[in-house]
Write a structure and sequence with these properties.
Layout (H helix, E strand, L loop, with lengths): L11 E3 L16 E7 L4 E8 L8 E9 L4 H4 L1 H18 L9 E6 L5 H13 L6 E4 L1 H9 L5 E6 L3 E6 L5 E5 L2 H4 L5 H17 L7 H9 L7 H6 L5 H6 L1 H9 L3 H26 L6 E6 L1 H5 L1 H13 L4 E7 L3 H10 L3
Helix pairs in contact: 4-14, 6-10, 6-11, 10-11, 11-13
């Protein structure tokens, strides 16, 4: 059963600034930046080395939140604008002028390919982010934030979905992350579409009745089912708006709607299959339990989906170690940025 996240390594605390007080002592020698960016939002954390710390413990002094920064989903210009806005907000929250930091880690969905990293590195240099910049995919942050020793299996189910495994010696394997057209099983967009398709079948009489029908109409402000077609295809709803409708399915699951339960069981099982494929790098010849970290809006807000996913992994023979829910992956970015100063 997944539990709330536990900090297994150096604690990272929030230290909000006093009103009207500027952190005049902040310098590039003790300030780092961690960014978590995905298909729904971007979070930037500004942290400074904790006073009296002999190691690499940091406290968060500023948080910024902006729109999506997955350039595969929203385009390069919008993604980079979101990154810049989140960084600006983090400095503003810390009540300090923006300046280069001693180290920065960007954990971004869609940042796995050399061309993606080159584009992001160019942006970081153009805005003088830091002389030390580390670019990772968002799954890497979840491992850093949610596993005892920075190895194990990370599974993300937010707008999309993705699994990343990392061995103790640093080897990695991934599965999923194919985007809303080719994959993203158990992501909010996929769940919402499955719910809408089930409603269409229920209306036709080719599928069982479901309470989701009236709830989808209510949330979309529609009077009749016939209005679903122009609403869904008319372009007024972007992917984020459709993904938000996944709540109709998860709420119906809690109300024991059989169709919703079938959808979530199927979605979780497909993501479990992908995560298990990535985890093979960890289990070849090994018997030790595998630390598991969950993240993303679907797994954080819907424990029944997280339970289905964990059961699907165990049913495939994966021996799970500690299971953590990571509700703030940007803290993993702070840990990885701090490690660059060692």
């Amino acid at each position: 059963m997944p539990t709330r996240p536990t900090d297994h390594r150096s604690p990272i605390t929030d230290q909000p600034p006093s009103p009207n007080t500027q952190h005049s002592t902040l310098t590039t020698n003790d300030v780092i930046l961690g960014i978590d960016g995905g298909g729904t939002r971007t979070v930037a954390l500004l942290a400074r080395r904790r006073a009296q710390s002999a190691g690499h413990d940091f406290e968060v002094v500023g948080r910024g939140v902006a729109g999506p920064s997955n350039h595969q989903a929203v385009g390069k210009d919008q993604a980079l604008a979101a990154l810049d806005e989140a960084v600006n907000q983090a400095f503003s929250a810390a009540v300090v002028a923006r300046a280069p930091v001693s180290a920065a880690c960007l954990g971004l969905a869609g940042a796995d390919r050399p061309a993606d990293r080159e584009m992001l590195s160019h942006w970081a240099a153009s805005v003088s982010l830091s002389d030390r910049v580390r670019i990772e995919n968002d799954g890497r942050l979840v491992l850093a934030a949610g596993t005892p020793d920075d190895w194990g299996l990370a599974v993300i189910a937010g707008t999309g979905s993705f699994a990343l495994a990392r061995t103790p010696d640093g080897r990695t394997a991934r599965a999923g992350g194919w985007g809303y057209l080719l994959g993203d099983d158990c992501g909010a967009y996929s769940i919402a579409l499955a719910g809408l398709r089930a409603v269409a079948r229920a209306i036709d009489g080719s599928g069982p009745p479901t309470a989701m029908t009236n709830e989808f109409l209510r949330r979309l402000g529609l009077a009749t089912a016939a209005e679903l077609i122009p609403t869904i295809y008319g372009g007024s709803l972007d992917r984020a708006a459709i993904a938000a409708l996944a709540a109709v399915v998860t709420d119906a699951d809690l109300a024991d709607d059989a169709t919703a339960q079938m959808i979530l069981t199927s979605e979780a099982d497909r993501l479990a299959a992908a995560a298990h494929a990535a985890a093979r790098i960890l289990t070849a010849g090994a018997t030790a339990p595998v630390p598991l970290a969950f993240a993303g809006s679907v797994l954080i807000s819907c424990p029944s989906v997280a339970d289905r996913l964990a059961s699907g992994l165990e049913g495939r023979g994966l021996h799970l170690g500690p299971v953590q829910l990571v509700d703030d992956p940007a803290r993993g970015a702070i840990r990885l940025a701090g490690a660059m100063l060692k």
